[in-house]
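To whoever picks this up:

The nightly regression suite flagged Na(+)/H(+) antiporter subunit G as changed. Nothing in the input moved, so I suspect the structure step. Input below, exactly as stored in the fixture:
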Amino acid sequence: MDAMLDLAAMILILIGALLCLTAAIGVLRFRDVPTRLHAATKPQVLGLILICLAIALSLRSWPVVAFLVPVVLIQLATAPLSAHMVGRQAYRNGTIDETGLFVDELAESKRTPPASGG
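Regenerated output under the current build:
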């Protein structure tokens, strides 16, 4: 049974590392902010979750699990929030290719300054 859990942990670490590697390659290779944000958040978070699960399987200790659960929860809470803030600031700076947007929900806020009250 221990050998099976160790094998599962090795496979999870390999898959998680590959997901983190694809996230890093995506951040370097993609050309615009939305695709870079997609590459930086989705595969990286899943890779971290898989690696944390592999660590928990490998060490088989409740204190380790108790340490890893907040790590995963904080990552799940902060990655979408930071991606949203970076994407919104890129939109405000004008560094997003607006011709590629299907729906522009922020067009009205771009015309009206935030402090104008209207």
